[in-house]
Backbone:
């Protein structure tokens, strides 16, 4: 029974093979014209749209990169300017400090000189007074010695 089921199968090709090949080629041609060509057109159109969007995305990325570069340049310029302002203010503060210190030293030196001069004058006056007192005492001692 199983041998009879396979009795209709031919192992060697005959003329129907060419008909089958012709039918397959016709089906490929018909499917290409009616089915695959419109699908390929839609796919190609979609691909172009994606490429257009990709180009748009590239343009946006270039714009972002340009804006970022401009931002970084402006930040660098602002930092440089702020450092210059800080340095100018620091120099002004140092100059003011040096001037204040020089004025204080000058005033202190003037005060010390004035006090030294006053001390010299006081010493000179004291010497004169001591000399006068010594003379008075000497006169008193000599008059006491001579009286007695």
Residues:
């Amino acid at each position: 029974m199983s041998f009879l089921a396979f009795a209709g199968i031919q192992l060697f090709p005959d003329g129907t093979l060419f008909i089958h090949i012709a039918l397959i080629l016709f089906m490929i041609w018909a499917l290409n014209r009616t089915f695959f060509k419109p699908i390929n057109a839609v796919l190609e159109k979609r691909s172009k749209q994606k490429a257009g969007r990709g180009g748009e995305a590239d343009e946006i990325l270039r714009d972002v990169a340009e804006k970022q570069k401009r931002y970084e340049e402006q930040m660098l310029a602002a930092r440089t300017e702020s450092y210059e302002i800080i340095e100018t203010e620091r120099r002004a503060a140092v100059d003011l400090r040096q001037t204040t210190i020089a004025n204080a030293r000058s005033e202190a030196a003037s005060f010390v000189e004035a006090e030294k001069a006053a001390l010299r004058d006081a010493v000179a006056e004291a010497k004169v007074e001591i000399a006068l007192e010594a003379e008075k005492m000497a006169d008193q001692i000599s008059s006491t010695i001579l009286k007695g």
Q: What stands out?
A: The CA atoms of residues 84 and 90 lie 10 Å apart. DSSP finds two helices and no strands in the chain. The mean pLDDT is 87. The helical segments are 2-5, 16-147.
